[in-house]
Amino acid sequence: MTMKGLQRWRRKRIWIPLFFFVFVYLNNTSFLVEAKGNPFLLAHRGLSQTFPMEGITGDTCTAKRIYKPEHPYLENTIFSMEAAFDAGADVVEIDVQLTKDGQFAVFHDGTLDCRTQAKGSVREYTMAELKKLDIGYGYTADNGKTFPFRGKGIGLMPSLKEVLQRFPDQPFLIHIKNDDPDEGRQLATFLSPLPSSRLEKITVYGGDQAIEVLQQRLPNLRVMSKQTIKDCLIPYIAAGWTGYVPKSCSHTQLHIPEKVAPWLWGWPHRFLQRMEAQDTRVILVAGGGGWSEGFDSAKDIERLPSGYHGGIWTNRIDRIAPLLNR
Predict the structure, then answer these.
(1) What residue ranges are annotated as transmembrane (predicted)?
(2) Would residue 108 show up in a list of annotated catalytic residues for this protein?
């Protein structure tokens, strides 16, 4: 190689990587994307009693460790959902459990021992029997010295049918708690008679098996599971720097832990723009996303990227909505 050829080659070795880095930066920077308004708010379990997250496991009875109550609402009740929507929630998250008579009860736990005076699993009771229980029975903020909601939760466990009848136009995120294919089939059967305009405002998430069956039977329903998130984000992380968005990211929902989000190509505004183009909703979950951590205080809101307009997960819609002028 001649001296001039060697010099040209050396210049290429400098410029080619530089062009590459400039391309990646410009293709993924959020500075060139106009931010759109405020976040939309997802109220976890409606307006509920909250509790410290430290030391929680899958077996922890959270009703026995609540903070001193600041409001009268119990999670997953009609009243808590009304309060959440009135406060400014755009979407309310609820939990469903299959009952003995094939209905879906709106209740967080698979068993009744923690929150009610009954024993055993929800599946062992009919919806009518569940209506007789006191869902506020087990709540205490002082290690069992007092039970501020005991006697006040009788008849407050609703069915999914009641919820959708009471809120015919409001958006819901339904959490199917058991990763059981049969529950996915039964939920599909329950939802299938609803008009497409109503199904457009419903998202369902849960275990991989239940969601896979549900998606097969209702392909136009927005769903989410760990597997659907992986199917979207793994190829996006591999190739999203080019602007490529995999088909698996279309018409779904992504719950992104706060600690993971900054590592996504184009975060925040370019990433949100790409997902919105695919009709996909992005919900930012506080911290590592381990145990339903939410943006629940003014300090939490301060951590949001400037101009962030995606969704945020909150356990205290009553505190957060006023901070965002809702």
Answers:
(1) none
(2) yes
